[in-house]
Amino acid sequence: MAKCAVCGKSVHFGNNVSHSHRRSNRIFKSNIRTVKCKVNGTPKTLHVCSRCLRAGKVERA
């Protein structure tokens, strides 16, 4: 579910780095919102990232 329907942005992976510089895996989750949008003139619920919402790539219903 954590995937943008417009640009395809999803989770990214990286490392937690402690004070002693030991590393463990972590996940960076995208800021995904569930939004009602117009798709071909009909309202539809999509999962869209906040960057696509701010850029106006989606027409809200």
Please provide a written account of the structure.
The chain has 61 residues and is mainly beta. It has one domain (12-55). 10% of the residues lie in helices and 46% in strands. It contains one helix and four strands. It has one helix spanning 50-55; strands at 12-17, 23-28, 32-39, 42-49. A two-stranded antiparallel ribbon has the order 1-2. It has a two-stranded antiparallel ribbon with strand order 3-4.
Question: What key attributes describe this structure?
Answer:
46% strand, 61 residues, single chain, two-stranded antiparallel ribbon, mainly beta
Short structural summary:
With 61 residues, this protein is mainly beta.
Structural class: mainly beta
* Mean residue pLDDT: 95
Query: Count of DSSP E strands?
Result: 4
Percent of residues in helical segments?
Answer: under 10%
Through-space gap between termini: 21 Å
- Major β-sheet strand ordering: 1-2
Poorly predicted segments: none
- Write the H/E string, N to C: EEEEH
> Could you state the oligomeric state of the chains shown?
single chain
Number of helices: 1
Based on CA atoms alone, the radius of gyration comes out at: 16 Å
Q: Total domains, how many?
A: 1
**Approximately how much beta-strand content do the residues carry?**
over 45%
Shape: rod-shaped
Query: How does the major sheet shape up?
Result: 2 strands, antiparallel
